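User: I'm new to structure prediction. If I give you an amino acid sequence, what do you actually give back? Let's try with this one:
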Amino acid sequence: MEEKETKEILSKIQSMERELFYLKEKVLSLSDQKPTQKTVSLDPKNQTTVTTISEPVSIEEGPNWFIQWIGQNLFVKLGVFSLALASIWFFYMAIEEYWINESVRIWIGILSSIPILWYGFKTRETRPYLSPSLLGLGIAVLFSAYYSGYVWYDLYGTETCFIGLILLSLTAVGISYAEKSEVLFGFASLGVFLSPILVSTGQNSYPFLFTYLIIWNVLFFLIRKDMPWKVVPLLILFANHLIFATWADSKLEESKVFFPLMFQIGVYLLFLIREFEILKVTKDRNPIFTLVTIGFTLGLGFLQSFWIFGIFYPTLKPFLLTLVLILFYALYQRSLKDTILTEYSKKTYDIIGLYGLPLIISVIVMGMTGKVLAFSLISFAFVVTIAATYSKQMYMYLATFPVWFFALFYIFAFTYRSFNEIPFVNGRFLIFVTGSLYLVFSYWYSRHFSTFSKLFLYAAYPYFLLGNFVEIYLGFPEEKRLFLYSISLILYGLITLVIGFQKQIQSLKVIGFVSLALVVTKFYLYDFWNLALGYRILAGLFLGITLIVTGTFYNRIKKETT
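Assistant: Good question. You get back a string of structure tokens that encode the predicted 3D arrangement of the chain. For your 562 residues, that looks like this:
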């Protein structure tokens, strides 16, 4: 009886669920919002309905965002550009037909900038992408109109024109700072850099030019700290160096060194200090433009200093350029000191640490020659390896390998033999020995830092052996060289084997074994058929004794381990 009542109750519940679902569909169909519904019926015994409501998707969030951007942004800018182009054509025709005189032309240009500036200012909140372009266009029109009165119609003098252009540019700088607009600041910067060039008659004082540019760079230095700008710093950096290069191409040799040098040092320090400060903020987000700006600041500053020092201080050029690099690394270390490094930001700073390496090598190369240069190169490679290991900077550590390759190749290729040199007792062989020792020490010091350290060890012995071969080739007659090559392989192979067995250093065992294997191969494939009888006997004697000693060591080790 109870079972029957339970079934009746469940049946009534299911009936009520169906009725509720019907009423819900009725209400939804009568409502104003008509969302799309998907109904999924499950097992009839446990009838449950799932309704999915799909909301309408905004065109800005959907796949048509590109169309939205073209319609709202690009079309508007193209329309502004088209109107400006049409106005310029009409203005040009009016000038050609002489419908308006000179002063009216200037006033038309000035007055036409007012509505552009007004609309750009009015839409700074509603059209954030359009407003800076309109403000920049208005300032450019005003700037051009004012300058036209000077260059075409002589309505005012040089000083008046220059002051007016500067006031316009500084006004634009102030507006861009207030609005935090990078685009508008770019227009203002263009006016600042163009003003002295446009009004110059070729007789202006370069001390005034460089003083003016330094003042402007100080202003940018103060403004930059509050602005997340990316492209403008690069443009201003290039503008500084472009103006200097244009002037220096014809006037540097005739000038005095103070103002050009102070300008370069000032730009160099201002940009490095400010970009290192900006890097502290951007290091964990998007530091690419900051890194590029720092790199170009160092590179361009080094090149311009090279130019200046080459003319005024040619004998001191390597030393003075070294000071430029020391300044860079001093600011680099100062920035590191106050920074909490994450794994990502550490890689960023590692990249910056590599910027000076090619410039340091160029200073070494330009300041020395011959064996002194070779010794300086391997010493520099060794010092950089130790510094990279000490500071735990993997990028710098890996960058030492091409430096090592260049240094070791230079020793082999360009340290020519001098007259009256005694084989194995000369500066060239000493440099080979020093390079091999540097490689061993680099391995020993960095063996716990990186697995790449084994490359130093594997290069040390072959390079030392190469030095011996060079001495044999340059210091002995041809008939003795093959025999001495074999003796060198036998001697050093035996020494490395003995040390390897005594100290249980596997890498030395391998090196010794390979050396003796080369001797055996060389003896039976080449020496046996080409050496003179006396040298053949000596080579066979030394090789036999060495192989017996080697076999004795291996047998002793076998007995000790079994």
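You can read the tokens as a compact description of the fold. Here is one thing that stands out. The beta strands are 36-41, 49-54.
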